[in-house]
Amino acid sequence: MQVKKINDWFEKFGRFEVKHRWGFLIGLLILTIVCSLGLPRLKLDNGEEDWFDDWETTKVNQDHFESIFGSTDSLLAHIKAKDVFDPEVLQMIDELGDELLNNVPYAGSITSLMELSLPIGTEDGFEVTSPFEDGVPSNPAELAEKKAFIMSRESIVNNLVSDDCTETWLIVNLEQYSENLDQAMAKIAPPAMAIFNDPKYKSDKWEIRPAGLSYTEYEEEKAIVWQCISRIALGFIVMLIFLIVFICSLRGVVVPSIATLGALCTTLGASAWLNIKGNNTMILVTVLLSMALAVGYAVHYINSFKMYFRKTGKRKESIVMGIRDSGWALFFTVITTMAGMLSFLSANIRPMRWVGGITAAAVFAVFVFEIILLPCLYSFGKDQEPDPDFVKNEGSTSSDLRVEAMGKSILNKKWITVVVGVAVIVAVLPGIFKIKVNMNYADMMGERTPYIHRLMEITRSQLGSQYSYEVLVEYQEEDALKNPQVLKNMDEMAARIGTLSSTKVSNGKPRVSSVTKVVKEMNRTLNGDDPAAYVIPDDQDLVSQEMFLYEISGGNDLYNYVSEDFKAGYLHIELSGYDGEEIVRNLEDVKKWCAELFPDASNAGVVGEVVQYAQMNGKLVRGSIRSIGTSLLVILLLLILAFTSFRTGFIAMIPNVAPIAIIGGIMGYASVNLDMITAMIMPMILGIAVDDTIHFTNHIKYHFELTGNYRSAVLNSYREIGKTMIMTTIILCAMFGIFLTSTMTVLVNIGWLSIVGLGSALIADYTLTPVLLFITKPFGKETK
Fold first, then answer.
1. Topology in the membrane (predicted)?
2. Number of neighbouring beta carbons within 10 Å of residue 40
């Protein structure tokens, strides 16, 4: 397939477009308005059901658990003080608990030092008492007695209060809410934040650290939205500044801006008319790629137009020639980039499929805006007298000639270029095999983000834990949970889970809670408060009696862990952090132990959103890797078809594979995990990097058809588009460089990985592409 013939067709299209420029502009305006009217209907969220193909099963299991035990969500306050039994601290805990209970939607009950239910021995057996039922005693001796009693309870120490009395929890147990998490957290978090930030709860005597699923999810969403919007906005401004410096043309600055905004409004508006729901996290890829390609397409066309305009001085003829020289290359880059993004459809994850489809549509829309607006708007204006110096140099500037001279040097040292290129790839390959596929939440967000710093302080404390899951044990028979052997097996399960790497341990005590703690505490109380009696009785009747006595005595902790018919119970496991792969590995052991310890149970397994998201990370990354592989294969096939040559297609792929290999190698050496965000960077960089490769290869082939000489073809291409490739890369690197200022590690990673990828892609295109084409001569024998 001859590039010259295709270029001739684009030349005809250019003449038609210039002739009917008002028709094109009005048609584009009408299309944009019609599509943009759908934007108010646009639905963007981060719904849990979108991430799981088996969401219905997951939802059924979670709903079944909550139908028995209520909501798994709670609002937490980690309280740190010199002594949490200080009267002022206790009074604050009491007031804070009451205010949260009265003002936070779905608040059901409070668990704190002020709201305990503990069994105590009496002459008649025992009774359940709350030490601070009558408030904080003013008598120091009485307060010390109550403190000693609480600290003697094994089920309380290093669970609700630390053994050194410097930390405690205030827990607001939330009732089950009918809405999804996004809707519920919007109701729960704001009033809770207002209370926690009230000046009356600020003191040098204590520190309050809020936490909880709905609370921190709300903080996370606000932080991510602000960081993303502010960085994209700053990046957009930086893009405009560099365009002004490099292009020196108002039209050259305005058109990429309009193209970016117009393409996004058109595609998102059209998707809204079609009732396609989007994802508010993944849209970041669409916005970034649209901005990047709008710049690249504009700079390539404008520089081509300017070259002819300097040489001829004829405006409309230069516009047509600019379309002729850049039209096919631009269109083909659109096709390859769209194909790369559509590879996300193979990920089997709805948000990834959506971002692949919407980004592919946005890429095409950017091209449509650029190919209409640039020629039409540049067609307005006067001709000028050609500059003799530019005529002499075929319209090239001094910087174009310096790039050509650099190209000569590269060709003269072609074998050194090949050896260095191979050496770099060999050097990064071991790093690729060091990459860990994992999502460590704290590492992704980074402690420079204020709420993450607070959560990490909680996690590193004695009692602190932000994440947890449950192990459900359910039988068909009533009173099955009164069977001593079942309870002992639950105790054994708790002991085994306590040895897992992800389980939180406070001063040697694993943070695993279940009904067995209540039973053992009652048994100890009935046996003269003997610590040796803190065990599960062997007699089922005794177990039943102890539970019955606890219930009628006013104890309220029993049904926190078992169902009213005693068919089901669960273990609550607190985690030391959020390491996706580690959690998944640990859960495999938990599932195996469930089958071993509860073979007769009708249902024994793991429940909890943390579990689902840990498993989702692996699925997401595997889907992204599959997408990267698919996009590489599709782009290779397109390159082969476009240049009708296997050799040319494979050669053109090398500069595109090299940046991905380099990014992967650096990630491995720098111990940067491959997570759901970093995995998304690869296809985005590939979509941008392939543009320069296509432009350069296409120009070389075109000039070879004209000159019949590879050296002339390569040097002409350096002179005509070499500077453009540098300009687009500098602008894009500056734009992504703004992300380095973010407080969120994940956005910083997007910044530096993008800069590394784009920089290495430019170097590969400048060196490997022309050298390999010069050495292999894939376009046929030279005629001159």
1. Multi-pass membrane protein
2. 8
Distance CA 672, CA 308 (A): 47
Distance CA 18, CA 676 (A): 45
Alpha-carbon distance values, 60 to 63, 214, 227, 567, 570 (Å): 5, 20, 35, 18, 17
Distance CA 469, CA 612 (A): 10
The residues, any chain, with a CB within 8 Å of residue 185's CB and separated by 6 or more, are: 213, 214, 215, 217, 218, 221
Alpha-carbon span 774 to 697, nearest angstrom:
11
Backbone angles phi, psi at 279, to 5 degrees: -120, 130
Go through 253-291 and write b for each residue having 16 or more CB atoms within 10 A of its CB, e for each that does not: bebbbbbbbbbbbbbbbbbbeeeeebbbbbbbbbbbbbb
* Gap between the Cα atoms of 591 and 770, Å rounded: 56
Cα–Cα distance measured from residue 334 to residue 365, given in angstroms and rounded to the nearest whole number: 10
State the CB neighbour count (10 A cutoff) for residue 489: 22
Whole-structure pTM value: 0.80
CATH number, domain 3-46+219-433+614-776: 1.20.1640.10
Helix (H), strand (E) counts: the chain: 25, 14
Find the mean pLDDT for residues 706-728.
Answer: 88
DSSP 8-state symbol, 501: T
Percent of the chain having pLDDT more than 90? 22
* Ranges of H-type helices in 553-598: 580-597
Q: What is the pLDDT of residues 18-62, one digit of tens each?
A: 999 999 999 999 999 999 999 998 887 665 555 655 555 566 777
> What does the pLDDT look like over 258-285, one tens digit per residue?
888 999 999 999 999 998 888 777 787 7
